[in-house]
């Protein structure tokens, strides 16, 4: 397994290396987390946990510029987006703090007979392992850590090997906010050590954000030990255009939905499904606007696209595009690469049987499909192993409701993009995983809904 290191994806310069921890050090971390469970859940009141999370939110906002620059160094996120991610993480922590008391309150049950009372008490379950990716280092952890620390579940974070600096910055924030010792730790471990953590009896749940392969391997390990798992995996989100009064505005939404995080977002729009009468104009306008996005040094706030996160990521995307073309796709624009910079690319003519038809493209590559009807659009949208998010543009409210109901995805956004918010649940179906983060459902994944029945 690669070592943990910060490697500037724009220049290739290795800025800092971090050693993997030893098995003995991992044992110490598990001991601290185990002790922290009692301190956090029993000795720290909910009011105090809420105050700590509010302080965490404040620190994210105060340090947003510093935190954003870390992401630009580690994985090439354009600086404006990187700072935005830090600020959004602060908003999410505030949301969880605002709603924790209501979410974790006892829930009375109306009895059908007998005397006395009954209620559900929501208790912590224990230490949780978070296996988190490189593409949204703060945001992904925030979705997982926020509700669970409020519940009283300590967190062990296994960050991406290329994002150790942001992981340590998060540890520092939690320490500065007053979180009990051991309640949030980052462990620089290898694959075999992850298996050790999953098997440890103090660890009662695992959340994985990453590839289908990583999710299935860790979920299998967790299943052998009867541990709860939440998976947020890949996506190949459809963006359906059935009618519009303003095609230019729809195109701008579409470009933004594909270009976010330089196309390296699991819930980014990737397959654009356009009704026949709008298709030619959409392809022309989308291709021109996508190709014109300012790209380059991620620390330049004017750039909307940065480099891909690593040479391996750029190699993989380049190979996917070449294979798609070899199998019959047409490149409308782009398809070229300089170092880790990948030109915005549009593919048309991707047919069933082309590998690209069923693959996720993790970078600035868009596929555009022509359809003749609503029925064909829905069928194409659902013809994927993934089911994370989806987008629909139409001027017909009844059609919007009808199509949204039929799309096989965890999320449907109608006539808008960039609508994600702290209060809106996030998650998918099919091979995009299961479980929900954000919103009120975030408190439901790793909690003991304990029945208390009092006879008299």
From TrEMBL:
Domain Aldehyde dehydrogenase: from-to ranges: 4-452
The organism of origin for this protein: Saccharopolyspora karakumensis
UniProt cross-references to CDD domains, sorted A to Z: ALDH_SSADH1_GabD1
Pfam annotation, one family: Aldedh
Organism superkingdom: Bacteria
Keywords, sorted A to Z: NADP, Oxidoreductase
Keyword Cell membrane appears in the UniProt entry: no
Gene Ontology MF terms in the entry: aldehyde dehydrogenase [NAD(P)+] activity; succinate-semialdehyde dehydrogenase (NAD+) activity
Family: Belongs to the aldehyde dehydrogenase family.
Protein name: NAD-dependent succinate-semialdehyde dehydrogenase
Position of the signal peptide: none
């Amino acid at each position: 397994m690669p070592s943990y290191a910060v490697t500037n994806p724009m220049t290739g310069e290795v800025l800092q290396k971090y050693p993997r921890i030893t098995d003995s050090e991992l044992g110490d971390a598990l001991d601290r987390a185990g002790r922290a469970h009692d301190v956090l859940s029993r000795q720290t009141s909910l009011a105090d946990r809420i105050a700590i999370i509010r302080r965490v939110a404040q620190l994210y906002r105060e340090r947003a510029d510093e935190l954003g620059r870390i992401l630009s160094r580690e994985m090439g996120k354009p600086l404006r987006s990187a700072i935005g991610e830090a600020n959004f993480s602060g908003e999410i922590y505030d949301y969880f703090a605002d709603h924790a008391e209501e979410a974790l309150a006892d829930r009375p049950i109306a009895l059908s007979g007998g005397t006395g009372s009954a209620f559900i008490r929501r208790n912590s379950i224990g230490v949780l392992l978070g296996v988190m990716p490189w593409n949204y280092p703060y945001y992904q952890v925030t979705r997982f850590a926020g509700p669970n620390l409020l519940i009283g579940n300590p967190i062990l974070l296994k960050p991406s090997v290329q994002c150790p600096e942001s992981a340590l910055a998060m540890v520092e924030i939690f320490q500065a906010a007053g979180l009990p010792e051991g309640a949030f730790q980052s462990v620089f471990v290898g694959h075999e050590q992850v298996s050790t953590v999953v098997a440890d009896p103090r660890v009662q749940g695992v959340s994985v954000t990453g590839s289908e392969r990583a999710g299935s391997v860790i979920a299998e390990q967790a299943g052998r030990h009867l541990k709860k798992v939440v998976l947020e995996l890949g996506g190949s989100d459809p963006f359906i255009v059935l009618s519009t009064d303003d095609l230019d505005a729809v195109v701008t939404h579409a470009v933004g939905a594909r270009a976010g995080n330089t196309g390296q977002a699991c819930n980014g729009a990737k397959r654009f499904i356009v009704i026949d009468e709008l298709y030619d104009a959409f392809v022309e306008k989308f291709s021109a606007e996508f190709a014109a996005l300012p790209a380059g040094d991620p620390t330049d706030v004017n750039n909307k696209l940065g480099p891909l996160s690593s040479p391996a990521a750029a190699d993989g995307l380049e190979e996917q595009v070449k294979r798609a073309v070899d199998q019959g796709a047409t490149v409308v624009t782009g398809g070229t690469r300089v170092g880790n910079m990948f030109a915005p690319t549009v593919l048309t003519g991707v047919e069933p049987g082309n590998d690209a038809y069923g693959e996720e493209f993790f970078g600035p590559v868009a596929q555009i499909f022509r359809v003749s009807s609503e029925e064909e659009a829905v069928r194409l949208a659902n013809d994927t192993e993934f089911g994370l998010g989806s987008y629909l543009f139409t001027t017909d409210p009844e059609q919007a409701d009808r199509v949204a109901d039929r799309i096989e995805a965890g999320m449907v956004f109608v006539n808008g993009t960039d609508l994600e918010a702290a209060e809106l649940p996030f998650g998918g179906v099919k091979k995009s995983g299961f479980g929900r983060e954000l919103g009120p459902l975030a408190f439901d994944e790793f909690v003991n809904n304990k029945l208390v029945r009092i006879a008299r």
